[in-house]
Write a structure and sequence with these properties.
Layout (H helix, E strand, L loop, with lengths): L1 E4 L2 H5 L1 E3 L5 H14 L7 H10 L6 H4 L17 H9 L3 H12 L6 H7 L3 H19 L3 H22 L1 H6 L6 E3 L2 E4 L6 E4 L5 E6 L7 E3 L6 E6 L15 H8 L1 H9 L4 E2 H8 L3 H13 L3 E6 L2 E6 L1 H7 L2
Parallel strand pairs: 1-5, 2-6, 6-8
Antiparallel strand pairs: 1-4, 3-4, 7-8, 9-11, 10-11
Helix pairs in contact: 2-3, 2-8, 7-8, 11-12, 12-14, 13-14
């Protein structure tokens, strides 16, 4: 479980990143691809990513020999160039201490030793590797990431306006709760307590990391919580779309309509109204889709809410 401890000053300084951060999204993408997060639905995407990475991106693997990269890579630049400038401005002492933490007693590659010594050639190697990985993996879908970020930004802004900051925070993860001044996020590994101590918190959605929150705490900067958002599958560019007639022949027209409506949560009653069917018929369609893993159903008191899963999104298309 991740436990984030707030002060009154931290609550005042909670903010939502207004734009996606290319380097953060790139790190989330590579982490998901390498660590096999996301289960079998991510397998085709993961295979494409790992096959497409050019040799110029290979040095990035040297930065995570044990799975946890150095903290100085976690920056919020609006562009790749801005992000790299922020990384390059890291104090030499922090660069050295983080590389020593990452490598410990292991022998480090030559270019990592150069980075440790502040060598300009090593920094250029890192810059080329990040740029090559971005151009291959993220550039083709960056417009989609920007659209998804705007939608998530709007959703969070409306939640804050209507229900307050506490509801916004706990709504970012099922089962999370705000208990007095501690935000608890269950299921996050390893078990970790982080005290913000007045530095504030930036909320940054990621659309390539489905496995839980990534919290970066860098001296002298606000803490950054990168959390999973979006439809549950990585954005794709030009994914083949199955014609509606083909899907309707398999699922049935009404059931396909239900699946597409459930990109947003619907109660049984609202789903029935949208489909122009009875509540019993809407419930039957939702049950059939749920049994196939395409829909989830949650009950709160007497209210039942249905929503599409990542598998349902994959089948239904955009």
């Amino acid at each position: 479980m991740l436990r984030i401890h707030f002060t009154a000053q931290d609550f005042v300084q909670i903010r939502f990143a207004p734009r996606p951060a290319p380097l953060q999204e790139l790190h989330a993408t590579l982490r998901t691809a390498v660590n096999r997060h996301g289960g079998p639905l991510f397998a085709p995407w993961r295979g494409r990513v790992l096959r497409s990475l050019p040799a110029a991106a290979n040095p990035l693997a040297d930065l995570v020999p044990a799975g946890r990269p150095p903290s100085f890579l976690d920056v919020l630049g609006d562009t790749m160039a801005d992000g790299f400038e922020q990384i390059r401005a890291t104090s030499p002492g922090l660069v050295r201490s983080e590389l020593e933490r990452v490598y410990g007693a292991m022998p480090a590659p030559l270019w990592i030793r150069g980075l440790h010594a502040g060598d300009d050639t090593a920094w250029r190697t890192l810059h080329r590797a990040q740029q090559a990985a971005y151009e291959t993996v993220l550039a083709p879908v960056w417009c989609v990431v920007q659209d998804l970020h705007r939608a998530e930004f709007t959703r969070c802004a409306l939640t804050v306006a209507e229900h307050g900051v506490a509801a916004t925070l706990t709504g970012l993860a099922p089962g999370s709760r705000l208990h007095e001044d501690v935000w608890e996020w269950p299921g996050a590994a390893p078990d970790r307590d982080v005290c913000l101590d007045g530095r504030g918190l930036v909320l940054l959605p990621t659309f390539h990391h489905p496995a839980g929150p990534l919290l970066q705490v860098t001296p002298g900067h606000p803490a950054v919580l990168t959390y999973p958002a979006g439809p549950g599958l990585p954005p794709t560019a030009g994914r083949p779309v199955v014609p509606a007639e083909t899907l309707a022949a398999v699922l049935g027209r009404t059931r396909l309509d239900a699946l597409r409506l459930l990109t947003e949560p619907h109660t049984t009653t609202s789903l029935a109204h949208a489909l122009h069917v009875s509540n019993a018929t809407a419930s039957s369609h939702a049950a059939a889709l749920r049994s196939a893993g395409m829909v989830t159903t949650t009950r709160t008191g007497r209210s039942v809410t249905h929503q599409r899963t990542a598998l349902g999104t994959l089948i239904a298309g955009a």
